[in-house]
Amino acid sequence: MQRIVRSPYVVIVLLAAIVLALPLLISSTFYLRIAALVFIFALAVVGLNLLMGFAGQVSLGHAGFFGIGAYAVAIGPTHLGIPSWAALIAGASIAGVLAYLVGRPILKLKGHYLAVATLGLGILIAMVFTNEARWTGGPDGMPVTRLELFGWRARTPIAWYWISGVSLIVGALIAVNLIESPTGRAFRAIHDSETAARTLGIDVARYKLAAFVLSAIYAAVAGAYLALFDALVTPVTAGFLRSIEFVTMAVIGGLGSILGGVVGAAVLVLLPQVLTAFHDYEHVVLGLLMMIFMIFLPAGIVPSLARLMQRRQP
Amino acid sequence: MPEFLQFLFSGLTVGAIYALVAVGFTLIYNASDVINFAQGEFVMLGGMVTFFAAAAGVPLPLAALLAIVIATAVGLLLHQLAIEPARGASAVTLIIITIGASIFLRGISAIVFDKNFHSFPAFAGTEPWMIGGAALLPQSLIVLLGAGAIVVALWAFMTMTLTGKALVATAANRLAARLVGINTSAIVGLAFAVSAAIGAFGGVLMTPITLTSYDVGTLLALKGFAAAMLGGMGNPLGAVIGGLIVGLLEAFSAGYLSSSYKDAIAFLVILGVLFAMPQGLLGRAAIERV
User: Fold this and answer.
1) In chain B, what is the straight-line distance between the N-terminal and C-terminal CA atoms, in Å?
2) Which of A273, A283, B100, B227 would you label with A245, given CA atoms 20 to 30 Å apart?
């Protein structure tokens, strides 16, 4: 029993159970829509968690990659006439290649210097989307053609519930597999101490770059999903506040915990929905809750609660 | 030439505000290793409280003083209620707390004040001086002199007073500072208070030129943070130089290249500098202990 509970794949089973059970418990398309949003954001945060939680490298610019995915599925079908699914793959590839090219010099920086460099990268990408109005529609954004696969159009919230839910499970499975592999151990060694990792013969630059590229691809796929789901994309998708939102989701849920990423995404997607009841006080309550969460659960919701439960039952 | 001078003036004015925000970042970072993303909110409070106090009939200088006092109190409360209880948490957890604080403060000001843009009259009139064909607003000069005075005062405080030296000692090594009897927790509180006061002062100075509203803090925090990192985190002089450089880069690229890409050019230069000098312009190389 102990061994089953400790298995890293428990998270995947749990996620799959949630994705399968939710439609049985809630039937309103409004709630399924929100659930799909949670899954889409969670996918991006699971990727960011590989970089921040496991390899220990901060990024304040991930909305840039998210935006590349989103604008790829907007621009591809509209301006270049390629189908949405191909545009999605192209967007993820562009994000990955860009992360690879920029990652090498950027990831030499450490801590807050890395934070400011990634922040600059994100802002540069968002600025291109805002200013190249001929391609992107400028600050107002542009409509996105619905996803079409084998003549079937994905437009209902339920369709997107399943697409995003299954993608999240697959994304989490890839992440767990990676973490349990030698690559995952190298990530954690770099997190603990770069110098020590290097002394052990780990190619620090290569593994940091791998984590950066992977997390960029996760973000781009999630961004493409969001654009296809909303049928609209604006520069806000790629903006600085979105990057901050991703980091907040990862930290509130718990860095270094796959389930934490999903919980963090759920909290930050659901809170504003609940808080609309507070009208003008929405932001006040949101800011207050962020502070309270971090003061009382400093390691993030999932790791902090797990530690509490372990203490209860020795 | 008149063009060049004009861009120089506007770049220095904006740069001086960024420099004040960056100095605020540096002070708090030095004392506590916290990157305080609510730093821009202090600037916002400075401008907004002054405007609404003045609108309520308080004389402008008194309104400005009130704004600085209120912002300082907010800074102290932020430290007491949010940072101190989370002591020992990781750096990124503390950053999220300050981001939460900035969202909270923005929300409060949107309710207590409003969501409109506001300004109050410049302190020394709006008749510009013509220098070499370029117009220099008296308020710009006040911003520059005010920022300069703050930097000098801060330098004097850190080198000539016992409290200031305790701040420097805390920044250098917290454990050692505690061993020689410095109350490091009080010092960190002081750093928050001084940073808040400096930010609010900047807000008071800039509002007649740039206007203010409940949400100006985000962009200022972003630019101030970038400026502090460009100068080298933890170095007050670096923060001032970084702020001025970012302001000048923006003004010159907006003037000579493209106004819609002015931020892009500033960040490209910052990226370039960091690639060549990973610790910023004046930062020290960090040595990792294993």
Assistant:
1) 55
2) B227
**What kind and span of H or E run contains B30?**
helix B2-32
Burial category of A135 from C-beta neighbours within 10 Å (exposed 0-12, middle 13-18, buried 19 and up): middle
- Band of the pLDDT at B67, cuts 50, 70, 90? very high
The number of distinct structural domains making up chain B is 1
Give A61's DSSP letter: -
Residue A271 in tokens:
């809170």
A152, β-bridge pairs: A149
pLDDT at A5 > cutoff 70: no
Question: Does residue B202 sit within a domain?
Answer: yes
B172 at the A interface (CB within 8 A)?
no
- B278 interaction partners in chain A (CB closer than 8 Å): 108-110, 113
In 3D space, the residue among B159, B62, B74 whose CA is nearest the CA of residue B109 turns out to be B74
One-letter amino acid at B150 equals: I
Query: How many C-beta atoms surround the C-beta of residue B253 within 10 A?
Result: 21
A283 touches chain B (CB under 8 A): yes
CATH number assigned to the domain comprising residue B143: 1.10.3470
Looking at CA atoms only, how far is residue B112 from chain A in angstroms? 11
pLDDT tens-place string over residues A103-119: 988 998 888 889 889 98
Q: Tokens in use for B214?
A: 């409940």
Which ranges of B58-137 would DSSP assign to H, the alpha helix?
60-77, 91-112
pLDDT digits (tens, 9 = 90+) for A16-32: 999 999 888 888 888 89
- On whether residue B101 sits in a domain, the answer given is yes
Residue A81 tokens read as 């006439």
Domain carrying residue B146: 2-154+184-276
Q: Which of B44, B9, B24 is nearest to B204 (CA)?
A: B44
For residue B290, what pLDDT is reported?
53
Reported pTM: 0.88
